[in-house]
């Protein structure tokens, strides 16, 4: 069993409108945009990152906003719900805030003894807020949500699978332990993780596979401290039979990817070097940052990418 993985690093999804996406995460959820860059493989599309003050691993939601993309069809073989941690007693505040910002289909419930509020993002993305006692992670409060209610980072992610068996075994190999099973959901967690260290598996054997589109999670990334730990994980996964990509430099972390038995795309990402490698912390996410191979496109991109504000 591996011990290098500490929980989630980031979750990457797809959207239709970059401006709507930016407004939802910064204005409605109160997160900080920590990076404004472009998709490495499609540089005419943004890659937007939202999180806490510095984009701490375990707090970062990222998006590829493809203009005119079709809406995704929910189903199995995907991350269904991305869950954020909020302080105890704050669900009422968030229900009022989300309703005032136009969010529909809010649903308060309880799962595994935790109070939660389920809601949808602008593209039909599945989200929830869960009340967590004594989450010590520092929140970002620069967008109008006070410290007593602000999001602390991820709490968990929920995957919808037709058969949980092989994916549960994979997660156990990655360092997760099964901690509960209730109402058809298996909960796994990493002891002593980074706070974003829980995964729920929903088994839905009669549900069709998902179709990727706006509102869909593209991949889910798990955090390791550095490149050395990442290489250890890569070797162990390959020795187990997984087809893992070479290490890819994503400017703010190094990444490897592999497809899981249930169909979800996993990434293992390093905590280093971080989002402040090319911007001062006080100004994260303000300027358009381009990978070296796309720097020559700056003039074109600055004219043609959708304006996020204004």
From TrEMBL:
Keywords: Dioxygenase, Oxidoreductase. Pfam families: Glyoxalase. GO terms for molecular function: dioxygenase activity. It comes from the Bacteria. This is Ring-cleaving dioxygenase. It comes from Rhizobium straminoryzae. The keyword Oxidoreductase applies. InterPro entries: Extradiol_RC_dioxygenase (IPR052537), Glyas_Bleomycin-R_OHBP_Dase (IPR029068), Glyas_Fos-R_dOase_dom (IPR004360), VOC_core (IPR037523). Residues 7-132, 153-271 form the VOC domain.
């Amino acid at each position: 069993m591996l011990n290098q993985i500490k929980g989630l690093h980031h979750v990457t999804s797809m959207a239709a409108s970059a401006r709507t996406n930016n407004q939802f995460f910064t204005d409605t959820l109160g997160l900080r945009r920590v990076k404004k860059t472009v998709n490495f493989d499609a540089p005419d599309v943004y890659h937007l990152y939202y999180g806490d003050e510095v984009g701490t691993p375990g707090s970062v939601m990222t998006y590829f906003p493809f203009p005119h993309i079709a809406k995704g069809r929910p189903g199995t073989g995907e991350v269904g719900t991305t869950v954020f941690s909020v302080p105890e007693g704050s669900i009422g505040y968030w229900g009022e805030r989300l309703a005032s910002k136009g969010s529909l289909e809010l649903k308060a419930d309880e799962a595994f003894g935790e109070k939660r509020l389920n809601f949808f993002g602008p593209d039909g993305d599945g989200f929830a807020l869960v009340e967590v006692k004594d989450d010590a992670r520092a929140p970002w409060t620069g967008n109008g949500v006070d410290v007593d209610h602000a999001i602390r980072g991820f709490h968990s992610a929920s995957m919808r699978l037709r058969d949980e068996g092989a994916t549960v075994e994979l997660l156990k190999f990655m360092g997760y332990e099964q901690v509960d099973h209730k109402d058809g959901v298996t909960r796994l967690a990493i002891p002593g993780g980074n706070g974003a260290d829980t995964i729920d598996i929903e088994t839905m054997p009669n549900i069709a596979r998902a179709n990727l589109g706006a509102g869909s999670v593209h991949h889910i990334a798990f955090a390791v401290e550095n490149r050395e730990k990442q290489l250890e994980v890569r070797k162990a996964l390959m020795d187990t039979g997984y087809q893992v990509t070479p290490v890819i430099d994503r400017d703010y972390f190094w990444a490897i990817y592999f497809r899981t038995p249930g169909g979800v795309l996993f990434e293992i990402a390093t905590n280093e070097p971080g989002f402040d490698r090319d911007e001062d912390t006080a100004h994260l996410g303000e300027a358009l940052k381009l990978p070296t191979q796309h720097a020559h496109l700056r003039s074109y991109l600055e004219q043609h990418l959708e304006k996020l504000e204004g």
